[in-house]
Amino acid sequence: MSLRHASYFAIMAVLLVGVGWLQSWSVAMGLFNMCLISAIMALGVNIQWGYAGLFSVGTMGFVALGGLAAVLTSMPPVPAAWSAGGLRVLAALALGAVVILASVLVYRTMAKGIGRAVALTITIVVGFFVYRAVLDPAVDAIEGVNTAAEGYLGGMGLPIVLSWAVGGLLAAGAAWVIGKISLGLRSDYLAIATLGIAETIIAILKNEDWLSRGVKNVNGLPRPVPYEVDLQQSAEFLIWADRLGLDPVEASSLFVKACYAVIFIVVLALIMWLSERAWNSPWGRMMRAIRDNETAARAMGKNVTKRHLQVFILGSAVCGIAGAMLTTLDGLLTPGTYQPLRFTFLIWVMVIVGGSGNNWGAVLGGFLVWFLWIEVEPIGLWLITNLTATMPEDSAIRLHLIDGAAHMRLLTMGLILLLVLRFAPRGLIPEK
Amino acid sequence: MDALNAIVLLSNFVLLPAVSYGSQLALGALGITLIYGILRFSHFAHGDVMAFATMAVILVTWWLQGMGVSIDPLPTALLALPFGIAITALLLLGTDRAVYRFYRKVRAAPIVVVMASLGVMFVLNGLVRLIIGPDDQHFADGARFLFTVREFREFTGLDEGIGLRVSQLITIVVTLVVVAALFWFLNRTRSGKSMRAFSDNEDLALLSGINPERVVTVTWLIVAVLVTVAGTLYGLDKSFKPFTYFQLLLPMFASAILGGLGNPLGAVAGAYVIALSEVGVTYAFRKFLQYLLPENLEPSGLAQLLSTDYKFAVSFVLLVLVLLFRPTGLFRGQSI
Hints:
heterodimer; A: 432 residues; mainly alpha; ABC transporter involved in vitamin B12 uptake, BtuC; 2 strands; B: ABC transporter involved in vitamin B12 uptake, BtuC
């Protein structure tokens, strides 16, 4: 990393400190934590795009799977729901897997023709109805258990930090299925297929109430860090806060955010270190060779489709980890808030702006673009208020524009993406 | 009689909605497939261009309504359609000049152009929300029904009925006209033939003296017509909400791929397959089965395969099936 690139990070730090100075330190710390998570997501996308040139727009789905992992790992199990239909749901899912395996078997073993088509259709249709017949009563029973507060199976009651790894694994599993189907075909197909899997995962999260309460949300996830209320009651902490001259409420909020920041930095550093190792390894060189000239790489005996699958899974897993961390930070899972613009396309802007094919660039992009995403709104509001200051207070146009200031950030992100793509396609910190 | 009732019921709740939704998708998917065939990239901004076009139509509609212009019983939006098409054409040609032409000139990889279309998507998304807001807008006026379920029942004496909404009729008629005109244009006119030639083999087309910039301009103009009509029809039939239009991207792409990317006929067929499956899979067949099955076999539940929110999953599953078994689509792709 050259001096110039290091100075970008310094500027970023100044910007964050500026927010702390002008707005509040709590806001700045919150922003910093989200920047860290965004940086990890950007690293995940960079692994897919920068290393291998894979265009996947399913980041939202993998992030959401990470969120699901946080719930499934950390929430306490609901024994009443388990006894009402837990095993039956598991049986239904196993049955579903058997049906899929059976249809694959039918497809593989039977000779091509009408016979196979009929057998395949019967297997799938009958299988689907049997699956639903087993699943539906169990789902009704589970959702009937204390619907207002539970109505789902709950999780495993393990420490939430473990869920980050689980989130990575879940995302990797989904990526394996999608990659198997759509890699090796035209490059656009992966894009459309991942767009589809992302929407499908969100639909599942919204509808399968027995799994994670659907749109009723799961809140009150356990935390890896202390609670503010406990801190405010701890005598030792109060003494510390007093010594630093801070208000106990603000001090506790800052302390909690700082704890999160420390854990996130550790994870980011770990993933960053691994990514850099991979980038500089023979494996990384092979990936770049495949990216730059697929035909030549294939002629050298590289299995392009397999390597693509591998790198797609790795990148998705990183996105899953980031998703689990995000849900941990929020303390709740709200499937309704997963929007493709925010969770897929914004991450792409981060990678392109930061510099695709450079891990440091992806991290910088994650920081900078998230910062802009949050700060453009107040800046836009300030701008519009000033620009329209000459208009009368109740002017319809003025009010409409002020209302619309919130949407300025979409516009800004689009413009930034277009400008960077056109005039600096290699990004802020280009690939070496 | 029961069988007739069952058919009428199915027509009212599955076939009719699926045909009108399918027509709207078909117009959208045609745009995607044309852009893919001629400009050779996946146009990710399609949903948002559609939202922008519909917004233009809505604004003109409101202006016309304010002036007291009306073509009752038809919706005023039909009158506003040409204005909307003109505005959208300007927008598309403008983005082509400002964004896409550069990448064409440097012969950038298709994926880079796709990225650029992501940028356009963001900008349009923001623009639409800035101008008209993110909320639902209803702009349909004129008569609502050609005939209602009740009138149909009284007329035929059946227990079930079909209600034909004006918006559905307009959708079907307009789609027929537009698609017929498009195919006539592609197959019979000089410009259409040069477009097909360009799509088949770019180098050969250039050698035979076809002006690529002209082909591209004509393509964008056609896309403007298709996308504005599609968006307006969808808005009249349901309602206008920017986010919903953005989400139409997936079924539209699924339709285009299902039919074979770059193949217009395929896009239309794919759109109807997607629409019929979406509506069919999420419809509760209970009443339909009650008419057909003997009493002791009647289903106890709703007999609904999947809940309504899974409609995106339907596009996705069909897409996956195509990719698995016939990656070139139902019809061979990449030829106009």
